[in-house]
Amino acid sequence: MPDPRHLCAEAVAREAGRLMRRRFEDRSSFSLSFKGHQDYLTEVDGEVERLVVSRLSALFPGDSFIGEEGSREASHSVWVIDPIDGTANFARGIPHFCVSIAHLEDYRPSVGVIYDPMRDEMYSAAVGAGATLNGVPLEVSGVPDIRSATVEIGWNMRSGPRSFLAVVEKVMREGAGMIRAGSGALGMAFVAAGRTDAYIETHINAWDVLAGLLLVHEAGGHVSDFLAGEGLAKGNPVLACTPQLREVLARASGIGN
Questions:
Q1: pTM value?
Q2: Domain of residue 118, residue span
Q3: Radius of gyration for the chain, computed over Cα atoms and rounded to the nearest angstrom
């Protein structure tokens, strides 16, 4: 029987996506601010997070929530939410962003949903049940040769330019092509869908990545142990890839497990 949290997460993500798209298409409906250097924020981020939390807390009143913009209370049944992953894209009129909703049971991902409202694409996974895109089963690419691979490498201010550029250089020296599209959650979803072959970031927060980790795992991919140590609270590096590239990319990125 389907996990009720899985079904509800999909429904809430769609509702949140409709709100995001409506606000995105009306550029006058929000203003732009910054939480830090190159760390974009709009009032829509908070609006979407409040919507998601209100819907899920009404359905599952015993659960706790960790959100990028609000509450950060961990428990044995916790939702981890990024209301708009790709806020810089959203703010600048680039239609590449999503809502990401993950549920952790006893600190392990049990449900992962990423919804891209501009493409109407619902990436969805439940532990042991596989991953789907709009209901169609997903499988990672299976590309066996790094020289034929496309790797997305995420950028963040926490690790700084030196760390980012070192990984870019090492990965490209191995022969891979490199992209950066500005949404870690969609980057992970694209690996699960076989659109790209790997996603690497030297530091990423839990709300950006947990739904994607489950998607890639359930699509047959390799994911690093993001939740090791204080990953849930403070973030960690992440490597997600088609299994044939695990060894070469772990070596190039320095991200093991």
A1: 0.94
A2: 4-137
A3: 17
